């Protein structure tokens, strides 16, 4: 990609986020009810290519079970409240009740409670008992310990996740996770994230990842971009990672799922992520609005609890209805934040794409006026796309 000079001899390339591009419809359309939206991760197939983020305001056991029954996958955060407290409800009530000036320090203190091995196993067993696929998430530092417990408890998919994950981490503070060895040791698919570049995506695939999470800092509750200045807009980072996936498949014959993680507010954003090359998406704030979500209408970043440098904040999202309506409909609102699977199927139909792979090949255009063109009344009345 051509680079432009931003000053002196310093160059940068132009990159794109969700509001910068739009999808071009095809000269052939198909019935949305006849498209195939399946997502494959290792041996598992999901009818809904949408994952719920491993965030404490989004996923608990109840949510994970309901998400699984609806054809998607929810990930429980093993570094979160669910494994620190036998009954985390009281802590979640307090987080929802704190004012904005004191909530970060309260969250920091709440996460000082030690993680309990028996609760890791218990949460997995509670989900598996309901007959749905179970996925859990761990930081790289805890992956070896948590992975062994999770395997014994019957986990199906293990996620290793941090703000930025690389194949090689340099530190003088003890042993770091050998991702290649870990993926070989785990008898279940391992998803790894997060990344935003072709090189790191390829590194993680070569290390043995069954899927990679793409995105640094785009989430509604994440402040990483403001705190560190680090990140790449999601359309470009997804397309770069998808190119790595395609090149890796040509070299090895192995399929790896590219999962765009964060920054999607409505169905149209999800459709653009897939059109840019994603096999699936992971979202948090739209699901935090569900009646089943544990956040009581609030949502906070995974790094909000960092003792010295929080890179997340608590945001109010409200409660808008059952998870079923948000994920598969019918939609109760007019702004595109519900029936997310319906959005994908309709976009695929309008582009004549019968499969996700076909949808990844549709034409995209750069269109800065796409979200505002002709929407003055919606904006002035704060309805639909003007919210």
Concise account of the structure shown:
With 387 residues, the protein is of the alpha/beta class. The chain is built from 15 helices and 16 strands.
What brief labels describe this structure?
387 residues, alpha/beta, 16 strands, globular, TIM Barrel
Task: Describe the model.
- A hairpin with a 2-residue loop joins strand 4 and strand 5.
- The chain has a single domain, classed as Alpha-Beta Barrel (TIM Barrel), CATH 3.20.20.70.
- By secondary structure, it is an alpha/beta fold.
- The protein is built from 15 helices and 16 strands.
- It is globular, with a radius of gyration of 20 Å.
- It is 33% helix and 16% strand.
- The strands form 5 sheets. The protein has an 8-stranded parallel barrel, surrounded by 5 helices. Strands 1-2 form a two-stranded antiparallel ribbon.
- The longest helix is centred in the middle third of the chain and has 19 residues.
